[in-house]
Specification:
The chain is mainly α and 128 residues long. 86% of the residues lie in helices and 0% in strands.
Length: 128
């Protein structure tokens, strides 16, 4: 169990780091430009660690921890509680479905879907 916990911490940190690095940019244009490459990094990361994620994607405690960390990273740039919550859960749900389907869509295809979630979040943010 110690090895699983250690692996979980390492992979969660790596997953969320893609969002955190890009959320630290304060300029909206910089944040928006990250919408296209962050999903590719995330989907590549998941694909490379598919066995781990397949084992964890149905674990409620894991999903809760992932949500909390992803929410915090997204909230830095979205600055809206409801939108950050919606985007974090949408991201997790989309990726969980992809994982459960054994990544039957290519990494690039999955990244395209994830990009749509990010684009939608920024469209909503801009309308406020």
């Amino acid at each position: 169990n110690g090895l699983l916990d250690e692996t979980t911490e390492q992979l969660l940190s790596e997953f969320v780091s893609y969002y955190q690095v890009n959320s630290m940019k304060v300029d909206d244009e910089d944040s928006r430009s990250s919408i296209s490459h962050v999903p590719l990094q995330i989907c590549t990361h998941i694909h490379q660690n598919l066995d781990f994620y397949k084992g964890r994607v149905r674990d409620r405690a894991f999903i809760t921890r992932l949500f909390e960390q992803l929410y915090e990273a997204l909230h830095v740039s979205l600055k809206n509680e409801a939108l950050s919550t919606f985007t974090a859960f949408g991201t997790i749900g989309y990726l969980a479905k992809w994982i459960e389907e054994d990544c039957n869509t290519s990494v690039e295809g999955a990244a395209g879907g994830l990009t749509s979630i990010g684009e939608l979040a920024y469209q909503v943010k801009e309308k406020k």
